[in-house]
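User
New here, explain this?
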Amino acid sequence: MDFIKDIKFFTPTLQLKELAILQHIENKEDTTQKELADLINAAPSMINVYINDYEEKGYIIREYISAKTVKYKITPQGINRKNYLLISYLRELLDLYKLAKENVEKFLQDIENKGYKNILLYGAGEVAETILGVIRDRQPSDITVEAIVDDNPEKWNKELLGHKIISRDEIKEYNHDAIVITSYTYEDDIRKRLEEVGYDEDRVVRFFGG
């Protein structure tokens, strides 16, 4: 659960931090308070507060190996608590995914209404992965992703959810109706690059720009 430091849309709650700490202790009894602090992006002094609280509630026990070395062990009650927090967290994530999926579904429907069936995605990142996942879940689908274009040579000839990642020079080798730009940060740059190779602007669809 070291993703907490990378969260952009949520303020990590006490419950999420508790879940991360209990999960980490279950997997690594000889962890340190510094590791736990790094895990949840908190001050080491706060970890001691959390640990004391979890110990009082019977979620963990401390085993003193020496004056400076402590092992943390999760109890059966702690495992039950961790599992409860995990299910609650997953339920909220699924609700958010459902909202995001509805928006992607609407976008795909707009593409279908334009008569596009075979498309290329431009930008092999999280947005492309999400779109591919929604298309996979809505099978059978009238939309087929032929390949994913990306300007990073390290990604070329690799796959994203079973779809080949290609360079811009390979676009002409694929029979397709349109290109969907799936990059937010580089959307304008991608449009310019497509213009440079003479790609028809009317066949460029922007996921973020409408």
Remarks:
- The beta strands are 60-64, 70-74, 118-122, 144-149, 159-160, 163-166, 178-181, 204-206.
- The two ends are 35 Å apart (CA to CA).
- The chain is about 45% helix and 15% strand.
- The chain has a mean pLDDT of 91.
